[in-house]
Specification:
By secondary structure, this protein is of the alpha/beta class. It has 11 helices and 8 strands. It has an 8-stranded mixed β-sheet with strand order 1-2-4-3-5-6-7-8, with helices on both faces.
């Protein structure tokens, strides 16, 4: 399948974002941020967008809360942005958060977790775990229903979401009703998969980029790659995890690892949808409003959430019918 014309044009040019590791982290972050926030906020109707600072496990933890129009209590989504645990913030994937909150009709809490290399593993998973527990405990004041709590993330954020799902299961709560995983490998890249070879040079994400990000994130890769919070694929069991939507991009070196994780969930009895978007590249959902595939991915996730985040009385009525 050919690349989408917009991505084909990008592939024929020198990339706007330099290869990871070729510039200082500070410069890489600034470049990614400037590239991501060039446009005005994604224009969907929302009742409120509010920034808050929580007393996180490693210091102040910023979150952004998106509240849909209408009357709650709404479903609740905790969202983690991508960026290889090294780049990204509340603004770089603001468009995904807005689009998903609106499409799902849910309160969405986006988390500005600590970044590597200044704060290596397990800082980001600890922030993610704290934020999810905070959201569940404070759902009422957010006009949300803690019984309809979902996790979502793109790329590195999807790995964080999958790790939280494992941790919540093993801790006995909070109960997670669904997880949305956009192109998150969920495994340390130790295998030469077909997609890793085919798309080693991108476009957008290169295999060398993924290796750089992982080695900024993990201080002891030989040992830490086996931790399920870093590599959810390597958990001893995947039974009892929440239903999962796994969205992948065709032209992405991490595609196969993400799809392998989806199949692992399915084989463990977890209701799982795996959808590969043709012509798309890693990070394509951030192109919402410019690429039709991005809107499709948001709509697909919202439809999945609608099936799994029904109010308890609605779900029961459906079972009785």
């Amino acid at each position: 399948m050919a690349l989408h014309p917009r991505f084909e044009a990008l592939a024929s040019q020198s990339s706007a974002v330099p290869p990871a590791g070729t510039v200082p982290v500070k410069e890489l972050r600034a470049t990614v941020r400037s590239y991501s926030v060039r446009k005005r906020p994604y224009p969907v109707p929302l009742a409120q967008v509010e920034d808050r600072t929580l007393p996180g496990p490693g210091g102040p933890l910023d979150v952004r809360i998106y509240t849909p129009e209408g009357t709650g209590p709404f479903p609740l989504i905790v969202y983690f942005h991508g960026g290889g645990w090294v780049v990204g913030d509340l603004d770089t994937q603001d468009m995904i958060a807005r689009a998903l909150a609106h499409a799902a009709g849910a309160v969405l809490v986006s988390v500005d977790y600590r970044l590597a290399p200044e704060h290596p593993f397990p800082a980001a998973p600890e922030d993610a775990w704290y934020a999810v527990r905070w959201a569940a405990e404070n759902a009422a004041q957010l006009q949300a229903d803690p019984a309809r709590l979902a996790l979502a993330g793109d790329s590195a954020g999807a790995v964080l979401a999958a790790g939280v799902a494992l941790r919540a299961r093993d801790a006995g709560g909070p109960r997670i009703a669904a997880q949305i995983l956009y192109y998150g490998s969920c495994n340390y890249p130790s295998a030469d998969t077909e997609s890793a070879i085919a798309y080693a040079d991108g476009p957008i994400l290169r295999r060398s980029d993924t290796e750089y990000y992982w080695h900024q994130y993990l201080t002891d890769p030989e040992r830490e790659q086996h931790d399920p919070l870093a590599s959810p694929q390597r958990a001893a069991s995947h039974r009892g995890l929440p239903p999962a939507f796994v969205g992948t991009a065709e032209a992405d070196p991490s595609r196969d690892d993400a799809e392998i994780y989806g199949r692992t969930l399915s084989e463990a009895g977890v209701p799982t949808v795996i959808k590969r978007y043709p012509g798309m590249v890693h990070g394509f959902v951030s192109w919402i409003g410019a690429i039709e595939g991005a809107q499709e991915a948001i709509d697909d996730a919202a439809a999945f959430l609608a099936r799994h985040l029904q109010p308890a009385h609605t779900a029961l009525a459906g079972e009785l019918r």
